[in-house]
Amino acid sequence: MPETESPTTPGQNRGFGVDVGGSGVKGGIVDLDTGKLIGDRYKLLTPQPSTPEAVAETVAEVVRHFDWTGPLGVTYPGVVVNGVVQTAANVDKGWIGTSASEVIGAALGGQHVVVLNDADAAGIAEQRHGAGRNRDGVIVLLTFGTGIGSAVIHGGQLLPNTEFGHLEVGGKEAEHRAASSVKERKDWSYERWSEEVTKVLVTIENAIWPDLFIAGGGISRKADKWIPLLKNRTPVVAAELQNEAGIVGAAMAAQADVTR
Ligand code: BGC
């Protein structure tokens, strides 16, 4: 078979991911061999209120924009077990108990959909294609945004639905202490905010002793301003895939269901 027809030709092993966030729903076609987007991503605003039906329709619009009919992965900002949503810290509470995979699948005429936690998606993408590639041991990815999301990966395997953002740290939930939304709301400097982030990292590292933290979320774009200020013991590196990590991880999850 000529090289160009090989199934491993870059760009042939494609998937599709959609990342559902509090403000935007974005998706794109992913080259699963390289973890890069093929072409542009497409973004729509998250409907408000962010009910399951409204969000499912928006996800479907993003998918139809690309005429995609293959394997589909979608992220959700809360705990998802077997496609069913269990928590809704920063989205409409109507999600709790909803089968996200069924509601989104129905909006797409019965298409099979794998739904997973947003930070878990970012974690598997960063581990395979970003800041965690070629790193052994236990990796903890944290996303700093409206809340704090977490992913734990060991030997390439995801431990799904860790919720370190809701750990109690000094009498307060970690994400109420150190999400990047807290920095904005309180108009804190990076110095002040990094003290809170340090407390959260120390609580996590004392519990599970990871080998590496990967810091993700929008604020990781300014990583040089705050990662050097952290005082915990485990090395912290910035995420590399930035706002594409969720899309890439969702596409990976649809190819090989990592949520179980
Ligand atoms: C949710 C997590 C989610 C994170 C980031 C938290 O409030 O509980 O499941 O990963 O926010 O969206």
Tell me how many strands there are.
Answer: 14
Helix content: 25-40%
Supply the CATH architecture of the largest domain.
Answer: 2-Layer Sandwich
Strand content: 25-35%
Q: Biggest sheet: strands side by side, in what order?
A: 3-2-1-4-7
Bound small molecules, by name, code or SMILES, are: beta-D-glucopyranose
Biggest β-sheet description: 5 strands, mixed
- Measured between the Cα atoms of the first and last residue, the distance is 36 Å
CATH topology label of the largest domain: Nucleotidyltransferase, domain 5
The helix tally amounts to 8
Radius of gyration: 18 Å
What's the rounded overall pLDDT mean? 94
Q: Could you state the oligomeric state of the chains shown?
A: single chain
The sequence of SSEs as H and E is EEEHEEEHEHEEEEEHHHEHEH
Shape: globular
GO molecular function, one term: kinase activity
Biased composition (Polar residues): 1-12
Pfam families: ROK
Protein name: Polyphosphate glucokinase
Protein model, in words:
GO terms for molecular function: kinase activity. It comes from Mycolicibacterium rhodesiae. Residues 1-20 are annotated as: Disordered. Residues 1-12 have a biased composition (Polar residues). It holds the Pfam family ROK. By secondary structure, the chain is α/β, with parallel strands linked by helices. It folds into two domains: 14-120 and 244-255, 2-Layer Sandwich (Nucleotidyltransferase, domain 5), CATH 3.30.420.40; 134-240, 2-Layer Sandwich (Nucleotidyltransferase, domain 5). It contains eight helices and 14 strands. The chain has helices at 52-65, 100-107, 118-129, 174-178, 180-186, 190-208, 223-226, 245-255, and strands at residues 14-20, 24-31, 36-45, 72-76, 80-81, 84-85, 113-117, 138-144, 148-154, 157-159, 168-169, 172-173, 212-216, 236-238. The strands form four sheets. The protein has a five-stranded mixed sheet. A five-stranded mixed sheet has the order 10-9-8-13-14. Helix 1 (52-65) packs across helix 2. The protein binds beta-D-glucopyranose.
